[in-house]
Design goal:
Distance between the termini: 43 Å
Oligomer: single chain
Structural class: mainly beta
Number of helices: 5
Length: 758
């Protein structure tokens, strides 16, 4: 007898990034978007399809190519997945079809998707094409004829509530023949239970005079998807990305040039927030991995791209926003040099290898390459302009990753990594769609590098040695807080039995797997806590809300019912090989958590040996907002998002960040305790000689290796107040314990692992 109930042991929870989809007219030679007029279906003005309400427009997509967002007229998203997402347009100046009043930069007009599906009307002009219905109606007049996009026109689906696209999905008119999906293929973590942001209806109930004592009218108000949470035993640092918001990487050994004879670089500048880049090469050869051609293949979906900001004039990003970001920078007016890299000064005591150097005759982007002795150092390039005596040079404090977790730093080298989710490439030029918006802008001609996971460490692939636990081609991540936190999508599926099909029972018929599948879209972390004590692993509790919830309703369709959505069964198929596990963030051997006994805590220049526990709490200030202006959309049984998302929040906006740290210690050093209890700001930016902060709190955890580089996490707090340091006499007559309450201004974290992008 087949199981007829849904079971917790047959649940799957995965997640993925959200990213914009930029669709330029003419990409792949054929793509266009059309404001649709359907002469076969007369309708009121501004509503070209009769079954839609007034003040809507239908946009039809056509053309495209394999491996790109639109292929053979079909946008590679599950039917209904984009309901609630926002759309903007960029219309070329002088366009003869679309009006400039639909251009976002010109008018600020933004549209909401209320319906998205592939038409299966065999008699309609848009059959087997993706139709996207938006509200409000377009300003472009399409009441009597189609209006096609033209050269220079662009349609962009914005990232919030838009899961990263999976161009390998398969659409079919019949639900039971479809295998639709999005790129929610990432391992959440070592989580034993997840509380989901379940949909709740704020039902408005009205008693009416003259109609007795009972409720006379009930109307649904807001739809909320709140209360999501999970606790994970941390095995890597990826959730710091979603909690803090920003990430830069350092992966020198993983980056590949792509081809020996070509240099790949952006062919146009890229703004912060973009999920799309265009690059070309110095030759006409497409990038290949492994580098230098060999037996590799062209860059493909699933590979990774690095943007190397260090090669540009503006090579660093600020980590702190509230203080001078030139920590430990200084000038020296005793410098002598003469058209060579050797510089003599009165004292090199303040110098550190890697410091940036600027001044007369100093080439751009020069650094201290080595320190010869107490008065002489070597520059990374030869000086110019002849002999200079007692010249003033400026020395800038170290940036990450030159500055490691033991030093204070307020800047980092600008380098980001992203996964390729769609691509259109020819003759060394490529249009690439990324899995996550970029945090920073990049200039034209910024260097582009590539990476691909292999089953081992060949061709730069990050890898963990099974015997020693050591990492090869490791990736270092710096996580910190700035203006935004990324949104993500979480996929949840529950089955009745542990097979791919549950044929023979009721519901959708023989092709129905009987899965209950939902994708929570527009998720953002609200608050979190990081905890460690002496009987467990390092743990992180994350609380999040969702804006929208997609539900697979394929089994409710009138013909050929079944599952439309192809769920990610992580270890059965999504991550069932070494390479796929790496792509999903769970390389074999890396699943072990960071344990308390492999951690160290440093504070006030002392490594603490008597810490009982600590808890670091953080808030992102994210709040959801509802806005007026959506269309009055009817609800049907097969709508994947009820009421087309018009009753759901449209924004999730970050507010102020707040942090607090509690640390319980057993007191064994009176001098240390006296230092702890001072109510002073513990930040020292004057120790230029060592460029360290003796007051810094450093929470360090690593995994044991016999030799080589270990997986590690460092949480750094270098600016804080100790506001409470009580010292009660214990009732049990045991050791004295102090529970310190600490208020940091900011938190940053450094993680070393095999994940290319968190």
């Amino acid at each position: 007898m087949p199981s007829t109930v849904y079971r917790g042991d047959l649940s799957e929870v995965t997640f993925g990034h959200e990213a914009a989809i930029r669709l330029e007219h003419g990409y792949a030679g054929s793509f266009k978007f059309t404001a649709s007029f359907d002469p076969n279906d007369p309708a009121p003005a501004n509503a070209p399809h009769q079954d839609l309400v007034k003040d809507t427009s239908v946009i039809v997509l056509s053309g495209g190519a394999a491996n790109s967002p639109v292929n053979s007229n079909i946008l590679e998203f599950p039917n209904g997945m984009l309901v609630g997402s926002k759309v903007i347009f960029s219309i070329a100046s002088g366009s003869s079809n679309w009006l400039q009043t639909d251009d976002y930069s010109d008018s600020g007009r933004m549209y909401t998707i209320i319906k998205q599906e592939v038409s299966d009307d065999a008699t309609g002009q848009n059959n087997n094409k993706t139709e996207i219905t938006v509200t409000p109606a377009l300003k472009t007049d399409h009441s009597s004829a189609d209006k096609d996009s033209e050269s220079g026109d662009t349609m962009t689906i914005l990232p919030f509530t838009t899961p990263a696209i999976d161009v390998d999905m398969a659409h079919a008119d019949a639900a039971n023949a479809s295998a639709e999906s999005v790129m929610t293929d990432q391992f959440v973590g070592l989580v034993s239970t997840v509380s989901l942001p379940e949909t709740k209806v704020d039902l408005k109930r009205y008693h009416v005079v003259g109609l007795g004592r009972d409720v006379a009218v009930q109307v649904p108000g807001r739809f909320t998807n709140t209360g999501g949470s999970f606790e994970c035993n941390i095995h890597n640092g990826r959730w710091f990305y979603y909690a803090l918001g920003q990430e830069v990487v350092n992966a020198d050994s993983a980056r590949q040039s792509g081809h020996a004879s070509d240099t790949y670089q952006l062919s146009a500048s890229t703004e912060a927030g973009e999920s799309y880049i265009v690059f070309d090469s110095s030759g006409s050869t497409n990038p290949r991995i492994p580098a230098n051609g060999g037996s590799g293949a062209d860059l493909k979906i699933g590979d990774y791209i690095f943007l190397d900001g260090a090669a540009n004039a503006v090579s660093t990003v600020d980590i702190q926003t509230y203080r001078d970001t030139a920590v430990n920078s200084f000038t020296d007016s005793t410098c002598d040099y003469n058209n060579d890299p050797t510089i003599v000064m009165d004292s090199t005591s303040k110098l550190l290898v890697g410091m940036a150097v600027s001044g007369t005759g100093i080439p751009a982007d020069s650094t201290v390459s080595s320190i010869t002795n107490s008065t002489t150092f070597e520059l990374s390039a030869s000086t110019t302009g002849g002999a200079q005596t007692n010249e003033t040079l400026t020395f800038t404090g170290l940036t990450w990753p030159t500055a490691d977790a033991t030093k204070i730093f307020d800047k980092a080298i600008k380098e980001e990594a992203r996964r390729v989710v769609a691509i259109s490439m020819s003759g060394g030029a490529a249009k690439v769609w990324l899995d996550d918006p970029l945090h920073y802008a990049y200039d034209d001609n910024t260097r582009v590098y590539f990476a691909r996971y292999q089953a081992d460490s060949t061709n730069g692939s990050p890898h963990r040695n099974k015997a020693t636990g050591a990492l090869s081609n490791s990736v270092s991540h710096l996580f910190f807080s700035r203006s935004t936190v990324p949104s993500f999508a979480m996929e949840v599926s529950v089955r009745r039995r542990d097979t791919d099909s549950n044929a023979g029972t009721f519901d959708g018929g023989t092709g129905d797997s009987k899965q209950l599948t939902r994708v929570f879209r527009g998720c953002k972390v609200k608050d979190y806590s990081l905890t460690a004590d002496t009987d467990a692993a390092l743990r992180m509790t994350v609380n999040f809300d969702s804006a929208l919830c997609y539900t697979d309703t394929g089994r409710l369709e009138s013909t050929n019912p079944g599952d439309r959505y192809n769920t990610h069964r992580l270890f059965e198929d999504t991550a069932n090989t070494e390479v796929k596990r790496k792509q999903s963030g769970i390389e074999k051997g890396t699943q072990k958590p960071f344990m308390f006994y492999n951690g160290t805590i440093t504070m006030l220049g002392t490594q603490l040996g008597q810490v009982v526990s600590f808890t670091l709490n953080g808030k992102t200030g994210v709040e959801q907002y509802y806005t007026i202006g959506a269309a009055n959309i009817a609800n049907s049984a097969t709508d994947q998002v009820p009421f087309a998302g018009t009753r759901n929040p449209t924004l999730a906006v970050e507010g102020k960040t707040e942090y607090d740290l509690e640390m319980e210690i057993i007191v064994d050093d009176p001098l240390f305790y006296h230092n702890m209890r001072r109510s002073v700001e513990n930040f020292d930016n004057t120790d230029e000689t060592a460029q360290t902060d003796a007051d810094m709190i450093r929470l360090s955890f690593n995994k044991v290796v016999s030799s080589g580089t270990a997986e590690s996490i460092d949480i750094l707090i270098d600016d804080y107040y100790i506001v409470e340091a009580p010292l009660p006499i214990p009732e049990d007559k045991g050791p004295l314990r102090a529970t310190l309450k600490i208020l940091p201004k900011a938190v940053k974290a450094i993680a070393v692992d095999t994940i290319i992008h968190a």
